Amino acid sequence: MQWARALGTIALLCLAGGLAVPVADEYHERQTYRHASVCPGGQGSAGKRADCLVPGTGQVTGKTSWTRCDSYGDVAPDSCTRGHRLRLDMRFAGERRTESLHVGADTYRRAGRGDRAELLVWHGEVVRLTVRGHTERLDPYFGVRWTPLAWLAGAWFALGAAAVVALGYVRRLRIRWWSPSLLGFYCFPGAAVGLVLEGVLFDGRPVWAWILAAVCAAVTGALALMSLLTSDLHVRRRRA
Asked: Phi and psi dihedrals of 143, rounded to 5?
């Protein structure tokens, strides 16, 4: 059975590596965007997927704003946020299309129907908008990127499964998979790794909040491990 355990471990390690590849690709794409410059040669010189900022033009054809309020009853006061959108007819890289963009309050106030807009486009998505001399950056990587975190979670579980198979813990795990200590030791360190990657590699803001959450998850995982080891020690003493 040693050969079966070795093959299973190798297969799970390969699976973990394959699941981590999209995370590396996401990071590479974000770094490429961060250092990208305007495509040389003008608007028609590069395609939509070029690794440079494609210049384009547009015209404001409409603008809308709205207010959304969330009610929390007696627990907390109501929270209201205001949003703004500009509707643009755009031309870039030989393509023409109409799109509604979420913008800030300053851009919304300055822009008027019929105004000309200067655009910079990254992989088909508007990342910079200039209207009446005012420029707004529309970061395509703003906010939490759930897709790489999902791939990372899959890689973490595959890596944990490889460790279980390599150590010959499969039969025992089938009996104790429901144990809170075991689940905590397995899940919380994975959450810590994901939080660190989101905060440091993917610019989660504020970074200190992501790091603090990662530390809390790591400490929780360590406590779960201590509980698991203590439980195993008691079991061995009763058997002895």
From this structure: 90, 180
Digit-coded pLDDT (tens) for 79-96: 788 889 999 999 887 788
pLDDT in tens, 98-128: 999 989 899 999 999 999 999 998 888 899 9
DSSP category for residue 44: G
pLDDT tens for each residue of 3-48: 777 888 888 788 888 887 887 787 788 788 888 888 876 544 555 5
The candidate with the shortest Cα–Cα distance to 220, out of 184, 194, 168, is: 184
Nearest to 122 by CA among 143, 92, 90, 88: 92
Q: What is the DSSP string of the chain?
A: -HHHHHHHHHHHHHHHHHHHHHHHHHHHHHHHHHT--BPTT-GGGS-TT-SSBEEEEEEEEEEEEEEEEE--TTSS--EEEEEEEEEEEEEETTEEEEEEEEE-HHHHHH--TT-EEEEEEETTEEEEEEETTEEEE--TT-S--HHHHHHHHHHHHHHHHHHHHHTT-HHHHHHHTT-HHHHHHHHHHHHHHHHHIIIIIS--SSHHHHHHHHHHHHHHHHHHHHHHHHHHHHHHHHH-
CB neighbour class for 109 (10 Å; exposed up to 12, middle 13-18, buried from 19): middle
What is the C-alpha R_g of the chain? 25
Average pLDDT, the chain: 76
Proportion of the chain above pLDDT 90, given as a percent? 17
Region for residue 203 given its phi and psi (left: phi exceeds 0; alpha: psi -120 to 50; beta: otherwise): left
